[in-house]
């Protein structure tokens, strides 16, 4: 099963089921993650910086393309509410701007 590893959350590892978004996988494991629009792809607060394994992600969704075209989503970022994995493992981190105050983040 594909896996998400979040480096600055103490190397948290989350299994991601086929067709499941990263956000849904994180929520299924009771991990809080910023998502102001409720996971609808209408904002960029749920983004993740991909450090390794971008090749294991499904193609960009229409929402991600729209934000990328507007300069609000960098080439190494994905929206966790939109991104699914095709195989393998990806490593990412929570951007500084969307860290939640009650969570403990490592460097």
TrEMBL record:
Domain 2Fe-2S ferredoxin-type: 2-98
One Gene Ontology biological process: P450-containing electron transport chain
UniProt keyword list: 2Fe-2S, Iron, Iron-sulfur, Metal-binding
Cofactor(s) essential for the protein: [2Fe-2S] cluster
Keyword Metal-binding tagged: yes
CDD domains from the UniProt entry: fer2 (cd00207)
Keyword Iron: yes
Gene Ontology terms for molecular function: 2 iron, 2 sulfur cluster binding; electron transfer activity; metal ion binding
InterPro entries: 2Fe-2S_ferredoxin-like_sf, 2Fe-2S_ferredoxin-type, Adrenodoxin-like, Beta-grasp_dom_sf
Homology family: Belongs to the adrenodoxin/putidaredoxin family.
Official protein name in the record: 2Fe-2S ferredoxin-type domain-containing protein
Taxonomic placement: Bacteria, Pseudomonadati, Bacteroidota, Cytophagia, Cytophagales
